[in-house]
Amino acid sequence: MDKVNILGVNVDTVTIPEAVDAIMEMMKENRPHAIYTPNSEIIMTAYHDEKFRDILNHADLLTADGIGVVYASRILKRPIRERAAGYDIACGVIDRIAKSGESLFLFGGKPGVAEIAEKNLLEKYPKLKIAGTRNGYFKPEDEKEIVSEINKSGADVVFVCLGAPKQEQWIARHLDQLKVKVLMGVGGSLDVIAGTAERAPDFWCNHGLEWFYRLMKQPSRIGRMMALPKFALTVLIHGKKYSGE
Q1: Contact 26/19 with Cβ under 8 angstroms?
Q2: Can you list the positions of beta strands (E) in 58-192?
Q3: How far is it, in rounded angstroms, from Cα 184 to Cα 166?
Q4: Contact, 5 vs 242, CB < 8 A?
Q5: Is the pLDDT of residue 216 over 80?
Q6: 20 vs 220: which has the higher pLDDT
Q7: What is the bridge-based pairing of β-strands 182-185 and 103-108?
Q8: Which range has the worst mean pLDDT, 30-34, 92-96, 151-155, 237-241?
Q9: Has this prediction a pTM greater than 0.85?
Q10: Any residues with CB less than 8 A from the CB of 202 and at least 6 apart, and which?
C-alpha cells in the first residue's frame, strides 16, 4: 500500500473500504496485526516522541483519522483520498465479520460501557459473535490477566479503546503475547457505539468540520484545538524533510 510520511509517521493512503478489505485479508494470516488510526494530535505526539513514533511505524495499517492529516498529505503533494477514521473502519469491520463469523472482543471505556456497546451491536447484528468485554480501568499488574482473558475468549478481533497513546502502547507491548488476528486502537469508538458519546453528524464529518462541531459542543476543547494550527505550521516548515522532497 502507498504511504505518505507526515513528520516521520508513515500513513497509509487508503480509503475506508480499502482499509476494511486489508483488515479482512489480515485475518487470513496466523499472526496478530496492529492497526492504528492517528489524527494530527497523535502525529504531533509522535513527532516529539521517537519511541511512540516507532510504535506507529511498526503498525500493519496506519490510517488518517483526522482531516488535518489529509490536509497535511496535500501540502506534501502525496494526497490521501479521504479521511479513514477509526470509527468508520471499525463499523466496516463489524459489518463484515457479522457475516463471515469472526469474533470480536471489546476492550476499553468506563465500567459498563463495553457491555452497553455489546448489547447495541447484537441488536443491530444478531449473528455477530462477541467473545468478551473488559473495561479500560486497570493497573499495570492486571495486564497479564487481561491478555489471558482475551486469549481464552478465542477472539479474532480486539477493539482496544484506551485513548492515545495508551492504546497503541498497550497493543505494541502485548502484540506477541496475544493469540488474535487483529488489534485495532480505535479510541472513543466504544463510547459512540454504546451511545455514551455523540459523533458529529455526517454533514460535519463529510466536510472536514467534525473538529468545529465538537468545539461548539465542548468549548473547553479550545486548548486541544490549538494543536491543529501548530501541526499545520510544523508540516509546512518541516514536512518536506520527512517526505523525501
Answers
A1: no
A2: 61-62, 103-108, 129-134, 157-161, 182-185
A3: 13
A4: yes
A5: no
A6: 20
A7: unpaired
A8: 237-241
A9: yes
A10: none
pLDDT of 174 > 90? The answer is yes
Strands 3-6 and 9-12: antiparallel
Q: Exposure of 229 by Cβ count < 10 A (0-12 exposed, 13-18 middle, 19+ buried)?
A: exposed
DSSP string, 152-170: HHT-SEEEEES-TTHHHHH
pLDDT confidence tier of residue 215, bands split at 50, 70 and 90: low
Is residue 165 reached through a cis peptide bond, with omega within 30 degrees of 0 on the bond before it? yes
Sheet of 182-185: strands edge to edge?
Answer: 61-62, 33-36, 182-185, 157-161, 103-108, 129-134
pLDDT tier at 226, thresholds 50, 70, 90: low
pLDDT at 203 over 90: no
Is there a contact between 147 and 178 (Cβ–Cβ < 8 Å)?
yes
Instruction: Answer yes or no: is pLDDT of 227 > 80.
Output: no
User: Residue 208 burial by CB count (10 A; 0-12/13-18/19+): exposed, middle or buried?
Assistant: middle
Neighbours of 161 (CB within 10 A): 27
Can you tell me the distance from the alpha carbon of 228 to that of 213, in angstroms, rounded to the nearest whole number?
15
Residue pointed to by grid coordinates 481464552: 152
